[in-house]
């Protein structure tokens, strides 16, 4: 399970931190309150602030870091059952984790849907408009095309419910870079069997780790997520492999960007 904290080392700020880039850039749109940017009713009224944020977060501006590549390595070794992420930055896919191994619980910019006729689009089709700061419109019905990001007031994607079959068969749960404050995602931490270890890699204690509801086999590695992941990779003897994988994939991505 992962959240915004795994992407801060890639340079993506927390939305709410005072002085952080994202919300500061949104001031000009006079949002009634910060969360309005992710409220579906507000989006229908004024989609521009959301598209300003989309421009910033659209895949391509940021690179995955060691935490993302660690999960990719888990997959390459046949050890990943699934990655449940709250992030919408697409860095998991960029690190090469196959989409079928991901549950992007709060959606993705990889696909989009017309808010009027429900026609489906590939996220890349919206890129030129989003980069120009134009609200993308459906050529068929002229409705606004919305990236498939889950807004407040919208249901989570159906594949979120995969947790019902995934969590009971997991034999380790790693929780990284999340405050475990957003429901229903946060409650997944309680969905593994009681005999299963839960490893928290985070700056601070969160969720059941903070409320005194820890299980005897829970472990918390507090501090920076990249340092925590490095420690785990070291203990597994995977550090060299992890660094090689990261260098290889980053190299390939840079070459692709240059083409
Ligand atoms: P959050 O509530 O902002 O919590 C982040 C957690 O990560 C906190 O406990 C921090 O202490 C911790 N943290 C931050 N940086 C580090 C670091 N370098 N090392 C270790 N720990 C760190 O974020 P959540 O994901 O829990 O909140 C849910 C929201 C925020 C979701 O709906 C996300 O979509 C949304 N969000 C996403 C992104 C993104 O896609 N990158 C960015 C900002 C917010």
TrEMBL record:
SUPFAM superfamilies, alphabetized: DHS-like NAD/FAD-binding domain (SSF52467)
Domain of life: Eukaryota
EC number: 2.3.1.286
Binding site for Zn(2+): 114, 117, 138, 141
Residues annotated as the enzyme's active site: 106
GO cellular component: a single term: nucleus
Cofactor note: Binds 1 zinc ion per subunit.
Keywords from the named record: Metal-binding, NAD, Transferase, Zinc
Sample GO molecular function, one term: NAD+ binding
UniProt: NAD(+) binding residues: 4-8, 14-16, 86-89, 178-179, 202-204
InterPro entries registered for this protein in UniProt: DHS-like_NAD/FAD-binding_dom (IPR029035), NAD-dep_sirtuin_deacylases (IPR050134), Sirtuin (IPR003000), Sirtuin_cat_small_dom_sf (IPR026591), Sirtuin_class_I (IPR017328), Ssirtuin_cat_dom (IPR026590)
PROSITE patterns: SIRTUIN
Residue stretches making up the Deacetylase sirtuin-type domain: 1-239
Cofactor(s) in the UniProt record: Zn(2+)
Catalytic activity line of the entry: N(6)-acetyl-L-lysyl-[protein] + NAD(+) + H2O = 2''-O-acetyl-ADP-D-ribose + nicotinamide + L-lysyl-[protein]
Summary of the function given for this chain in its UniProt record: NAD-dependent protein deacetylase.
Family: Belongs to the sirtuin family. Class I subfamily.
Name of the protein: NAD-dependent protein deacetylase
Lineage: Eukaryota, Metazoa, Chordata, Craniata, Vertebrata
């Amino acid at each position: 399970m992962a959240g915004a904290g795994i992407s801060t080392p890639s340079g993506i700020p927390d939305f709410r931190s005072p002085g952080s880039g994202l919300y500061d850039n949104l001031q000009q749109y006079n949002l009634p309150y910060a969360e309005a940017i992710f409220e579906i009713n507000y989006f229908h009224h004024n989609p521009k602030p959301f598209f300003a944020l989309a421009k910033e977060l659209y895949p391509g501006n940021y690179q995955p870091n060691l935490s993302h590549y660690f999960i990719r390595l888990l997959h390459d070794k046949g050890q990943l059952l699934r990655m449940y992420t709250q992030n919408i930055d697409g860095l998991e896919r960029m690190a090469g984790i196959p989409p079928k191994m991901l549950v992007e619980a709060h959606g993705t910019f990889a696909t989009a849907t017309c808010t009027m006729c429900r026609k489906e689009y590939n996220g890349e089709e919206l890129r030129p408009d989003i980069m120009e700061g134009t609200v993308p419109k459906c050529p068929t019905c002229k409705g606004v095309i919305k990236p498939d990001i889950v807004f407040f007031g919208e249901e989570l994607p159906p594949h979120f419910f995969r947790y019902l079959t995934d969590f009971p068969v997991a034999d380790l749960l790693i929780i990284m870079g999340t405050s475990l404050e957003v429901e229903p995602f946060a409650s997944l931490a309680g969905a593994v069997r009681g005999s299963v270890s839960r490893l928290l890699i985070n700056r601070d204690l969160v969720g059941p780790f903070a409320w005194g509801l820890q299980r005897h086999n829970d472990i918390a590695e507090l501090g920076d997520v990249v340092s925590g992941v490095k420690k785990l990779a070291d203990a597994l003897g995977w550090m060299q492999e992890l660094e090689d994988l990261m260098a290889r994939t980053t190299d390939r991505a840079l070459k692709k960007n240059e083409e």
